[in-house]
Amino acid sequence: MTIDEQIDFLTRGCVDVVSKADLAKKLESGKTLKVKLGCDPTSADLHLGHSVALSLLRRFQDLGHKAVLVIGDFTAAVGDPSGRDSTRPVLPREKILENAKTYTEQAFKVLDPSKTEIRFNSEWLDPFVSGKDLMLTLQKVTVAQVLERDDFKKRMAAGNPISLLEVLYSLFQGQDSVALKADVELGGTDQIFNLLVGRQLQKNNGQEPQVAITVPLLVGLDGIKKMSKSYGNYVGLNDAPNDMFGKLMSISDELMIAYYELLTSEDLTAVKAMHPMEAKKHLAGLLTERFHGKEAAVAARANFEQVFSKKQNPDDMPEFKPEAGQLLSAALVAAGAAQSKNKARALIDQGAVRLNGQKLTQDGVLAFDSGAVLQVGRRTFLKLIK
After folding, report:
1. Which of 188, 189, 215, 344 gives 332 a disulfide partner, CB atoms 3.0 to 4.6 angstroms apart?
2. If you count DSSP H runs as helices and E runs as strands, how many of each does the chain have, helices first?
3. C-alpha 92 chain-centroid distance
4. Where do the CATH 3.10.290.10 domains begin and end in the chain?
């Protein structure tokens, strides 16, 4: 590939590239670039939203460059304020380390392990904050620069609090780039401020500044907010094949096109010429195959068609044994089909709970014969036993 072709390949679908001239210069040098992507382990699972940046990182690997996946065990304790309208709860270190355990395994569903370096940012940020380096860095960053952030402006206007830890977050992320001598940093569009801070801190430390590249934020299943586990609108990379396929089939036709564009290399003209239902099944199959293999994807499609197209019960329903005299709402919570009794009652009121195909419209003692099928929503099926 020529340099121009490499740049087109590496920036396809991206939003910000600061700057293409800098990227061209780095590529022309012929050296193996160090390309950084940070993930804070605030939950145990990565999701399809993370895979957008991971896929871009894989493109760099395919051209022979080195990926550095930074596990933010230090920054997760601070809480990334990007795009949020309230302060995020600070997680205890034990929870952070527990969440981080599966990140490598999940990331390698996309990345080439042989061209990936895994680093934990407590390695350099613990000494950074305990010594004089933090004070020296703070001298070179103004309050006005930090408060220029769009998300901070909105929160201040709404009277929502901003913690000092959140103010420092961008400095910590920028210090990651200094410590690693990163050539390129990737992130979502809500990360552009943090990526530019990294460029500035590298300049302050006499380093060649990194190229900052952002990718669009993947909208979640609700079609409104960005995909996030905290919003409950996500498809996890570790979701079971049937769950992944079923969740993807629940998105709107408009959102389906955006998913094709951000998550696949399919010809959009050909996709738009397909029947919407078939196009959606094709998308769900592509992504399920990517993370679970072809056999699992084929089985997931067959399961979906059996359950939703032919209105049959799935073959692999988990069994659940309600307690004698247990209320329906309590049974739903005990079975893991609802997070609370209030949410269980809301599902009942919405007509989302069925027993052997019949809607249960009132909460009360769950009466059933052994082997009865309890359905909650579109995807949850339980075989009741006594």
Report:
1. 344
2. 18, 11
3. 21
4. 319-384
